[in-house]
Amino acid sequence: MRKRLPALIAATFAIAMVTYATWAQPARRPPRGGSTASPSVKPLPKDDAEKKILAVLDDMDKNQRRGMMNVPTEDGRLLRMLVETSGAKTVVEVGTSNGMSGIWMALGLRKTGGKLITHEIDATRAGLARKNFKNAGVDGIITLVEGDAHKEVGKIKGPIDLVFLDADKAGYIDYLTKLLPKVRPGGLIVAHNARSHGSSMQPYIKAITTDKDLDTLFVNMHAAGVAITMKKR
Prior knowledge:
Elements: H1 4-20, H2 48-63, H3 73-86, E1 90-94, H4 100-112, E2 115-120, H5 123-136, E3 142-146, H6 149-152, E4 160-165, H7 172-179, E5 183-192, H8 202-210, E6 214-219, E7 226-231
């Protein structure tokens, strides 16, 4: 797994270079007759189980968008790649919503043999997530903790391989403070909405970009934005 991390970071760096030029620039209307967006390529299922999971994700994207704070497919696929490429065994998510990002990460965890601990404060969203996990057939590798993550994450035992933050943006700095000591050296902290909610995330962004023990890349900054931070060895 340690040998995989340099390749993972190199690949993430390449993505960051592509998206860097669009960081902090306003979205522009595509020109007539064309689009400035990257080519959209749907993931191809490797087996029947993955086909079932992708079908559930597609249905969620079409029918469960209203009132949910889901990652777009592009970011979901990135999460799956980060989990699987790093060989993550223990993944912690803050902000389950209806389970979209958790299911994407579960695709990677199926290959690594790992588990996901995800936190959701809203009872309605938590209930919907449980149904979606079951429908996708990944409920056996996901533990959903219902309650205030600010109080619950402190109970998690390390080492943690990957953390995904997608909850209250102003609270990211508190989650970082509580979870970073439990993240193993070489582990990753991934934060969503680094561009779309950048102003409320300033304390977090300052923390991950001024700590000599961390290395951070910003990717997909043409959209919501993702901050990927590695805890140095």
